């Protein structure tokens, strides 16, 4: 797909500077250089300044909340970009985050920052970010989230330590190295002639439908995962599968693999655990969904690959 990399988080050619990671002195020099910028992330929420990423200069008071060294994201025009976890900070009274919800609408403001700076859910602002910031923020959120949930060695259970400027953890006890994980998910634009298949999971906001999707399993090809997920959730049989586009999806650490899946059957048999409803809709009906003009199906959230695939299918731009 020619437009594949125009998806949100599609990347902007960030120089990830992998050669620097194993050089602690060079990393330390970049960490205090005047042109360096550091992005704080608080309990999974990046800092925003207006609708842009909230980059701070080295030495800023907010960065003193960090418990571990910043991770090196890469270089932009020779200037280093880092991210740091400041989850230890306690927000002011009345700004507590919402727990256990799909989307936390609350925002937290640090007293040392201007009024337009706040920690906020990336889901709500991801489509506003410029491509360069989007890649950096997605990388920061996924990498710091991995560190927060992988503090202990999975081989021996002892605490592990950050090495390689944040791109590995190593167990001081048994020497095992651990690498940041990325979990592949297939997401399918299922088509049958001029119609496509959308589904909704139990518990989703009213009117929300999306392309079918599911985690890949060990030992499975992308094609096999697409066929299995569609068959499990709807009973629809898939023939030819082709790759369209991918999207890093840092909630917490997925890679969405967008595919075109050509259906060979139409009858729907729902798996009620996975899906509450599934419908075939035509191109014109899909255009109404995208325009926010459909009576029962709401417009997809901006930034997610499902809406991106649907938009380009309606416009006949999947080539
Ligand atoms: Zn170990």
From TrEMBL:
For this protein, the record's InterPro entries field holds: NAD-cap_RNA_hydrolase_NudC, NADH_PPase-like_N, NudC-like_C, NUDIX_hydrolase-like_dom_sf, NUDIX_hydrolase_CS, NUDIX_hydrolase_dom, Znr_NADH_PPase
Q: Which cofactor does it need?
A: Mg(2+); Zn(2+)
Name the keywords, alphabetized.
Hydrolase, Magnesium, Metal-binding, NAD
EC assignment: 3.6.1.22
Determine if Membrane is one of this entry's keywords: no
Q: What class of enzyme is it?
A: hydrolase
Catalytically driven reaction(s): a 5'-end NAD(+)-phospho-ribonucleoside in mRNA + H2O = a 5'-end phospho-adenosine-phospho-ribonucleoside in mRNA + beta-nicotinamide D-ribonucleotide + 2 H(+)
Residue intervals of the Nudix hydrolase domain? 180-306
Q: Which NCBIfam families match?
A: PRK00241.1
Q: Which family does it belong to?
A: Belongs to the Nudix hydrolase family. NudC subfamily.
Name listed for the protein in its UniProt record: NAD(+) diphosphatase
Q: Which organism is it from?
A: Albidovulum salinarum
């Amino acid at each position: 797909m020619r437009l594949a990399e125009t998806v949100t988080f599609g990347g902007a050619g960030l120089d990830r500077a992998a050669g620097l990671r194993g050089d602690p002195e060079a990393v330390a020099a970049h960490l205090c250089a005047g042109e360096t910028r550091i992005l704080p992330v608080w309990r999974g929420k990046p800092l925003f300044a207006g609708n842009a990423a909230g980059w701070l200069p080295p030495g800023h008071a907010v960065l003193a909340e960090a418990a571990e060294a910043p991770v090196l994201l890469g270089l932009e025009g020779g200037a280093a970009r880092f991210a740091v976890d400041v989850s230890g900070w306690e927000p002011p009274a009345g700004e507590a985050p919402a727990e256990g919800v799909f989307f936390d609408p609350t925002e937290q403001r640090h007293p040392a920052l201007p009024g337009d700076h706040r920690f906020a859910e990336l889901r709500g602002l991801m489509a506003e970010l410029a491509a360069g910031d989007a890649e950096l923020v997605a990388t920061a959120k996924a990498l710091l989230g991995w560190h927060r949930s992988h503090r202990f060695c999975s081989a021996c259970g002892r605490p592990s330590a950050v090495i390689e400027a944040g791109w590995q953890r190593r167990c001081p006890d048994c020497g095992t190295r651990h690498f940041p994980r990325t979990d592949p998910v297939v997401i399918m634009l299922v088509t049958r002639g001029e119609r496509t298949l959308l589904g909704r999971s139990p518990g989703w906001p009213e009117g929300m439908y999306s392309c079918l999707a599911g985690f890949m399993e060990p030992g499975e090809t992308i094609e096999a995962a697409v066929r299995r997920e569609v068959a499990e959730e709807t009973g629809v049989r898939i023939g030819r599968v082709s790759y369209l586009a991918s999207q890093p999806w840092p909630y917490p650490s997925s890679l969405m693999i967008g595919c075109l899946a050509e259906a060979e059957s139409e009858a729907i048999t729902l798996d009620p655990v996975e899906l509450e409803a599934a419908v075939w809709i035509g191109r014109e009906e899909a255009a109404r969904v995208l325009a926010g003009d459909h009576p029962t199906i709401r417009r997809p959230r901006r930034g997610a690959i499902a809406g991106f695939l649907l938009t380009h299918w309606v416009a006949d731009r999947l080539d």
